[in-house]
Amino acid sequence: MTRSPRSNQLRGLYVITDSPLLHSDELLLQGVAAAIKGGARLVQYRDKSTDQQKRLRQSKRLLQLCREQQVPLLINDDIALAVEVGADGVHLGQDDLSLAEARALLGEQAIIGLSCYNQLHLAEQAQEAGADYVAFGRFFSSHTKPQASPADRALLDQARKRIQLPIVAIGGITPQNGGALVAAGADMLAVVHGVFAQSNIQTAAQDYRQLFSE
């Protein structure tokens, strides 16, 4: 299977935007810029509103920022938006368009990640279908998805033996509990509130970045 060469570079802090926390264009851009300055290696634009004009405007401005900083920008769920703005890829849930359809629309160089929750067999299917990374979680109590099924370190241990793709861990991850997930096999830690709900976003990102150099 053909994979984006960038998928081999997916390691470190993966920040996911949150419209209630970053509730204006300027806050969004300032917050993401600070996170990148602090060490974020991948950015996902996540906005569940139905305001298509806002989503288009913000994703275009975010892409410009991310291109300047040489950090890939993924769009959450919305493949059409990713195509329209020329984003670097998408993150998909199991109920979204299939990975094969997303690949056909976005091209071979796009980064396509897939939520696999706490199910190893979903990650194995994603790998076979040509995903660039798989995401497991939630590992801890989560503000963003409090009802998500829990995952544990044993899942990461198993996945590391059977999955050759970069593995993303998500869900309530802090600088205090994230190190154990990295040690268990997570290549990236995906964070929302742990970065964007903090008073100093850059410093918060630096705290996560440090976990990958220890």
Short description:
The chain contains 9 helices and 8 strands. It has 214 residues and is an alpha/beta fold. The longest helix has 18 residues.
Looking at this protein, list some descriptive labels.
214 residues; alpha/beta; TIM Barrel; 8-stranded parallel β-barrel; 8 strands
Write the layout of secondary structure elements.
Layout: E1 12-16, H1 25-38, E2 40-45, H2 52-69, E3 73-76, H3 79-85, E4 89-92, H4 99-106, E5 111-117, H5 120-129, E6 133-136, H6 153-162, E7 167-170, H7 178-184, E8 188-191, H8 193-196, H9 201-211
Helix pairs in contact: 1-2, 1-9, 2-3
Please state the overall shape, judged from the principal axes of the Cα atoms: globular
Strand content: 15-25%
CATH superfamily: Aldolase class I
Using the coordinates shown, work out and report the CATH topology: TIM Barrel
Structural class by helix and strand composition? alpha/beta
CATH architecture: Alpha-Beta Barrel
Integer average pLDDT: 93
By DSSP, the count of extended strands is: 8
What does the largest sheet look like?
A: 8 strands, parallel, barrel
Description:
The protein has a single domain, classed as Alpha-Beta Barrel (TIM Barrel), CATH 3.20.20. Helices cover 42% and strands 18% of the residues. It contains 9 helices and 8 strands. It has helices at 25-38, 52-69, 79-85, 99-106, 120-129, 153-162, 178-184, 193-196, 201-211; strands at residues 12-16, 40-45, 73-76, 89-92, 111-117, 133-136, 167-170, 188-191. An 8-stranded parallel barrel has the order 1-2-3-4-5-6-7-8, surrounded by 8 helices. β6, α6 (153-162) and β7 (167-170) form a beta-alpha-beta unit. The protein is globular, with a radius of gyration of 16 Å.
